[in-house]
Amino acid sequence: MTKVEVTRREFIGGAVGIGIAAATVRLEAAVPAAGLDHVNIRVPDVRRSAEFYIRLFGVQVARSPNAKAQTANPASPSGELWFIRLGESFLAISPTGSQLTPGIDHFSFAITGFNGDRVKSQLAGLNQQWPDAPSNNLWLRDPAGHVIQLNAAGDPSRVPGAGVGAVLVEPEGGAQRQPAFQAARVSQLVLAVPNLEASATYYRKLLGDAAETRQKGRFRVGQSDFVLGSASGGESFRVGVVGFDASAAASKLKNVGVNATVAQNKTVVTFRDPDGIRVEIGT
Questions:
Q1: Which of 10-19, 95-104, 118-127, 178-187 has the lowest mean pLDDT?
Q2: Which residues of 16-48 are buried (b: 16+ CB within 10 A; e: fewer)?
Q3: 99: which of 75, 118, 208, 227 fits an S-S bond (Cβ 3.0–4.6 Å)?
């Protein structure tokens, strides 16, 4: 019998090769997310909140007078819903009802080539929810209880909220709205999670580990950032605006009665809306 000898150099080289091969195995995304389609906030006074956000971003505004809030949360009540276009994205505003507190009710990933029936088979193990919803929308609930909507990328030419019967709300007297900012998109969403590893693992399966940046729990989704933060850090969403300048943004917010904090690196300004929800304006 011929004895095969393996030198130390050959052994190390082979082991390194195996390690490289293992390291290049990637977790494919369950769904190809193209961006953040919308964020839905819930508030006790929907109209007051809508008027606040219209002053900031309201070029295109829509309203559904009495619709079921579109969410996998069964406690979400029917009521007046408002929708404000944020460039490629939009903000939805729905009522809290008696059982919920103000905050982010749910958010939506825009899915490239979305087809609900086809996508269902790709969501095994991701805690699918199946409430009554607009046609061809899917819902998930992550390990921290956050509600996720999956739908096709929005068409900016379509009225936001059209799927639940929303119609455009024109300014009184035919005047043209002149909001403080020209919104480009929802550019960042931060969610508070009690267990970063469990939530990061979930979103790696959903979005693919190639979407995760070098910072654990921070994912790049289209031109937006999706961030998992500590439970103590709270939640927030950021609106990217055209021609952002931190000092000018803070001045504009002050003019509409909002006190904002300018980040030290001047890349973002932060404030609280009338219901205490943390909002950022940046790029």
A1: 10-19
A2: eeeeeeeeeeeeebbbbbbbbbbbbbbbebbee
A3: 75
Query: Who's near 263: CB < 8 A, 6+ residues apart?
Result: 246, 269, 270
- Return the pLDDT at 158: 86
Do residues 273 and 279 lie in contact, with contact meaning Cβ atoms separated by under 8 Å? Answer: yes
CA distance 70 to 67: 8
CA pair distance 194, 168, nearest whole angstrom: 39
- Domains of the chain and CATH, by start: 33-282 (3.10.180.10)
Residues 48, 57: Cα–Cα separation, whole Å: 15
Of 69, 81, 259, nearest in space to 167 by CA: 81
Q: Which amino acid is at 194?
A: P
Average pLDDT over residues 169-183: 90
DSSP 8-state class, residue 215: S
Q: Where are the alpha helices (DSSP H) in the chain?
A: 8-23, 46-57, 116-120, 196-207, 246-255
Checking if the pLDDT of 7 tops 90, the result is no
Phi–psi pair at 256, nearest 5 degrees: -105, 20
Query: What are 104's two structure tokens?
Result: 């982010």
